[in-house]
Amino acid sequence: MQEALSHIKQDKHQRILRIQSAALKAIHDYLYRQGVVQAMPIILSPATDPLNHPHFEAKVEYYGQKLHLTKSMILHKQLSLLNDGIDKIYFMSPNVRLEEGKLRESGRHLFEFTQVDIELKEKTKKEFFTLIDGMIAHVFRFVIDECSDDLKALDRKLSVPRLPLKVYESDELRKKHGEHFERVVSEKAKDPFWITNFRREFYDREDKERRGYFHNYDVIWPEGYGEALSGGEREWEHDEIVRKMKERQTDIRAYETYLEVAEKGLIPRTVGGGLGIERMVRFLSGQRHIRDVTLFPRVPGERIVF
Amino acid sequence: MQEALSHIKQDKHQRILRIQSAALKAIHDYLYRQGVVQAMPIILSPATDPLNHPHFEAKVEYYGQKLHLTKSMILHKQLSLLNDGIDKIYFMSPNVRLEEGKLRESGRHLFEFTQVDIELKEKTKKEFFTLIDGMIAHVFRFVIDECSDDLKALDRKLSVPRLPLKVYESDELRKKHGEHFERVVSEKAKDPFWITNFRREFYDREDKERRGYFHNYDVIWPEGYGEALSGGEREWEHDEIVRKMKERQTDIRAYETYLEVAEKGLIPRTVGGGLGIERMVRFLSGQRHIRDVTLFPRVPGERIVF
Which parts of chain B have pLDDT scores under 50? Predict the structure, then answer.
């Protein structure tokens, strides 16, 4: 307990919280001005993001129904945009991902965290890039303006990135830097940047003319801070979704209702992504381990005190 | 499933979401200007609010530890303010409260919802009232300015309440209107108002000179919409906390760590409260049932489709 108390009492928290508050305000201001409406997050659902890596399941039972804790709101984001009057939506969405304990020392994993999770209807990845580029630049500008004393006290220098942020293809980076290209390029970079085309969850759109090419992407923080945002254009056709679920050995029964909606042709064509708040604050405030940007750390495999 | 799809597709959602987005922006703007820092919500903890009414428990296990889904962040709010540099804090905090199915028709219960949960150190309830009065007035002003078309389309008339909001004592209202005074006064009122002094959870401060008098309060929406905010000055002394836990038959073992902190005299003197977002949006947009302000309703006892 003493350790948990000392953690909370650290002097730097007030500075990090002011930086976080400014960054959050900048995000809300920007998205509001862009006409992206904010819906409230959901914690329990019959089906959530399957995720494409090993982790433990988290569910509770309520009136005989098994409900999963949200790993991401991807399915709900798509369903929201099925409303004809809603074209742009975002959620401040806590995600619970019971990760394996070996991720403890990565410095950037928490088993619960919040993402600002955005989805746009009938838009392309290029349009999404433009929206996010503007959001990131606005966050930098606002934090630099509002928190100069805090940044100085934390010995953190930030400069507004030049837009548009650079876009790299994963294949080219892999050829040049090997399997750990993300880390290598993040360490060298001065500004955040995009990488496109990753093989991952079923819902990211695969090119029909060019199998194995995925219209998805990450934003990577520079200076070795790693992943900032993850997203993609989405699959909307029933047969593609089922094919990709099978390829990934996803338990199709868990997605019965979602697949029924897809079969009716109702899943809208969307593009989007989620930006991790704690990872953003870690980068903005220059903290080595993500635990230091939270008062109540939720580090994989660590015992929770409060 | 057809019903859940029809629910999502309702035309009015876009209007309600714009009203919600404006209200949320107004809250963030106001609290930012007041220097209240925003911390990120927690979903899983070893101990959460016990709540003072019947409901089902929700917990998951992770690396051998039982973790409860947050019913409110009251304990975490107190612990945050143990940091010497943090005096005012808020969380946009999803709460999971697995309520009994009989609350289904109340029109204002969801088994998960979000509250803006605020806590101030070394302040009194009067100072908290002033902060919240200002926040509510700012929300009304901003929503009326930004959403006039949407309010009109929903046939909803709002006017900015006169400040300070009225403060009533529960005892006087009970004498005058009987046990259901809250509903009676809410139905008659034109503006939101405060009611003080309720017997409830252990953490709300009971007057030492006047046992049975509690320094806590609710804000009530007018026009019969009922509870908006709930809060209080808090207990901070170990012996008082234990005495009140025993009175309420709270399982003390579940709060061992928290009580250790209290025993060291570390719990700060705070005051605060949480305002329910979905209930606020229900009132602002004039919806009969709270399900209508959510795309994915979580009504007690109802089967969840998405």
Answer: none
CB contact under 8 A, A5 and B294: no
Q: Nearest-CA distance from B97 to chain A in Å?
A: 11
Look at chain A and report how many structural domains it folds into: 1
Q: Which residues of B touch A277 (CB under 8 A)?
A: 40
Q: Which domain holds residue A135?
A: 2-164+254-293
Task: Count CA atoms within 13 Å of residue A107 on its CB side.
Answer: 11
pLDDT of residue B135: 98
Q: How far is B73 from chain A (nearest CA, A)?
A: 11
CA distance B179 to chain A (A): 31
Can you give the pLDDT at residue B156?
98
Minimal Cα–Cα distance from A187 to chain B, Å? 27
What's the complex ipTM?
A: 0.97
Chain-centre distance of CA B225, in angstroms?
A: 14
Domain holding A134: CATH number? 3.30.930.10
Give residue B59's pLDDT: 97
Query: Contacts of residue B37 in chain A, CB cutoff 8 Å?
Result: 14, 17-18, 20-21
pLDDT in tens, B129-154: 999 999 999 999 999 999 999 999 99
Mutate to test the interface with A, among B71, B149, B304 (most CBs of A within 10 A): B304
* Residue B189 resides in a domain: no
Residue B202 lies in a domain: no
CB contact under 8 A, B40 and A294: yes
A261 to chain B, closest Cα gap in Å: 9
Task: Tell me which chain B residues have a C-beta less than 8 angstroms from the C-beta of A20.
Answer: 37-40
Among A58, A257, A306, select the one facing B76 at the smallest CB separation. Answer: A306
> Is B142 part of any domain?
yes
When CB atoms are compared, the residue of B47, B65, B83 closest to A9 is: B83
Instruction: Please give the full DSSP string across chain B, using - where no structure is assigned.
Output: -HHHHHHHH-THHHHHHHHHHHHHHHHHHHHHHTT-EEE----EES-----SS-EE--EEEETTEEEEEPS--HHHHHHHTTSTT--EEEEEEEEE-EE-GGGGGGSS--SEEEEEEEEEES--HHHHHHHHHHHHHHHHHHHHHH-HHHHHHTT----PPPSSPPEEEHHHHHHHH-TTHHHHHHHH-SS-EEEE-----TTBPBPSSSTT-B-EEEEEETTTTEEEEEEEEB---HHHHHHHHHHTT--GGGGHHHHHHHHTT----EEEEEEEHHHHHHHHHT-SSGGGG-SS---TTPPP--
Q: What is the pLDDT of residues B218-263, one digit of tens each?
A: 999 999 999 999 999 999 999 999 999 999 999 999 999 999 999 9
Candidates A25, A42, A86; nearest CB to B14: A86
Residues of chain B found within 8 Å of residue A9, distances taken between Cβ atoms: 82-84
Q: Is residue A181, in this structure, part of any structural domain at all?
A: no
Below-70 pLDDT ranges, chain A:
none
Q: Which of B8, B24, B306 sits opposite A45 (nearest CB)?
A: B306
